[in-house]
Design brief:
The complex is a heterodimer of chains A (270) and B (207). Chain A is of the alpha+beta class and 270 residues long. Chain A is built from 8 helices and 8 strands, in the order ααββαββββααββααα. The longest helix of chain A has 45 residues. Chain A starts with 5 loop residues before the first helix and ends with a helix. The two termini of chain B are 33 Å apart. A two-stranded antiparallel ribbon of chain B has the order 1-2. Chain B has one domain. Chain B contains 11 helices and 2 strands. Helix content of chain B is 67%, strand content 2%. Classes of the chains: A alpha+beta (270), B mainly alpha (207). Chains A and B meet through helix 1 of A and helix 4 of B.
């Protein structure tokens, strides 16, 4: 047989490619559920890491058990900060990366903000974890930001990525010292960028920014944009849930307001 | 049978992909910081080289010559994706797959795989091709594990993640060597291994 014939070549390559595609599709379908279970356990361990938990075990079952023990509620909020749903804690239901991706369209596009439904993970230690999602240099990046019960002080953060360059952009995940910078920062909603990443050093006294990664300008920018966009999406929810003083008193009436409230509560007790 | 034995032993010693053919250097620098990663990488490459050589040898008489590299690439990438998917599916290997990140996918571009298909599988029967492919992967893996053993021992003081250098040493002032963790040390170590290999095997010395 003449294998150098044009028609033969075209038919041969077509058959090979279709066959390979079919095999890969079949395998991916068969292994999909197992991979999803591993991914879910990994996401849970990332949320737990962000929420400052340690020693949550190494196997999937241990991680999920630990999560179930320590989560108090998962609230889904809309663009007005109202609660529009809940995820089942007993079942350890979480938003997968794919679901974050879907919500990212609603976060970025104001026209779609009506469909916004993003999760806030509340843990029994008082920490609330919120997800972020955005674009890095080569692919999607996402992560979790944990805030203390005052909903202003950042307790910690964890980031992950699909295909950033190892050693450069990959440091958002692999370099603990980058993540550690977030602890103790204050989210400031009066700023257009409530929490951001700044290249060339954070000015002294600026409490709501961290240093970018050297050699990873695009990844740092992408991560910063993702944090800003998602934090702004959470702004109404944070303001609604924050202790009354933190948000709606800016002109020095704060202490007074609080004192009055205390008086009132005392009176009712009497 | 003697011929088969030679087919198997040649890629391990005289035709070792790393120390003699100097192929696959990139990944041998990147994944040898820890033994666990090196071990999984060695296993993955062995599977890919073995199976792709087998498949390419099976279809060697039907491949149109003008598109043979493309067909080989399709077969190799299918094997790599299969290995990657399998690693992602098991709880034990999932974190390792994550840690090896792009390097599993980059087995596709590992010269050893294409090199063995072009040089051996396209001209030989399936079974010897499978043996040659497996042995090439093992020859690559053996060097990987030697390098990773030294790097993990001196760089982190552990073997397969278990601490082997006693705490007393650290208290007495011993410190892990930071240079060993960095890729340049892997290159230095590879150079030493090639040196030793050549001084033992006289056939490899240039006149």
């Amino acid at each position: 047989m003449n294998t150098n014939n044009n028609v033969y070549t075209v038919i041969y390559t077509t058959i090979v490619v279709v066959l390979v595609a079919a095999i890969l599709a079949f395998v991916s379908q068969k292994l999909g559920p197992m991979q999803a279970a591993n991914q879910k356990a990994e996401t849970i361990s990332q949320i737990l890491t962000a929420a400052q938990f340690e020693d949550f075990g190494s196997t999937n079952a241990e991680k999920i058990d630990f999560y179930k023990k320590n989560i108090s509620e998962v609230v889904l909020v809309n663009a007005d900060g109202q609660k529009v749903g809940e995820l089942d804690c007993k079942d350890a239901k979480i938003y997968s990366v794919a679901e974050l991706k879907a919500q990212n369209y609603n976060v970025k596009d104001e026209a779609k903000s009506g469909d916004l439904k993003i999760p806030m993970y509340r843990f029994s230690n008082g920490i609330t974890v919120v997800p972020i999602y955005g674009a890095g240099l080569w692919g999607p990046i996402w992560g979790y930001i944990a805030v203390e019960s005052d909903l202003t002080t950042v307790a910690g953060a964890y980031f992950d990525h699909e295909s950033e360059t190892p050693g450069l952009g990959g440091k958002i995940k692999d370099d603990p010292s980058f993540r550690a910078q977030f602890a103790g920062k204050k989210i400031d909603f009066s700023d257009d960028a409530p929490l951001s990443i700044i290249k060339g050093g954070v000015p002294a006294g600026k409490k709501n920014a961290v240093d970018a990664i050297t050699g990873a300008t695009m990844t740092s920018k992408g991560l910063s944009a993702a944090i800003v966009a998602w934090m702004n999406a959470f702004k109404p929810a944070f303001s609604a849930a924050a202790p009354s003083c933190a948000c709606n008193c800016c002109n020095g009436e704060c202490g007074q307001h609080e004192a009055e409230e205390n008086n009132e509560s005392n009176e009712t007790e009497e | 049978m003697g011929k088969m034995k030679e087919t198997f032993l040649n890629p391990l010693m005289k035709g070792n992909p790393i120390t003699v053919l100097i192929l696959g250097i990139c990944s041998s620098l990147a994944v040898t910081v820890e033994l666990k990663g090196a071990f999984v990488m060695a296993l993955s490459v062995t599977m890919v080289t073995g199976l792709s050589s087998l498949v390419c040898s099976l279809i060697r008489n039907t491949i149109p010559n003008r598109v043979r590299i493309i067909i080989q690439l399709v077969v190799v990438s299918m094997m790599v994706i299969l290995v990657d998917q399998l690693l992602k599916s098991f709880e034990a290997t999932y974190p390792i797959d994550k840690a090896l990140s792009v390097y599993i996918g980059l087995i596709i571009t590992n010269c050893i795989v294409m090199g063995r298909i072009e040089a051996y599988a396209l001209g030989n029967k399936p079974i010897p091709s499978l043996v040659d492919g497996l042995a090439s992967g093992l020859g690559y893996g053996a060097i990987l594990i030697i390098v990773a053993f030294v790097r993990e021992l001196l760089g982190s003081g552990t073997i397969f993640g278990l601490r082997v250098i006693p705490e007393a040493f650290y208290n007495a002032g011993y410190v892990n060597n930071g240079l060993v963790i960095l890729p340049p040390f892997a290159l230095i170590l590879l150079g030493c291994i090639i040196w030793v290999h050549r001084s033992i095997d006289k056939d490899l010395q240039e006149k």
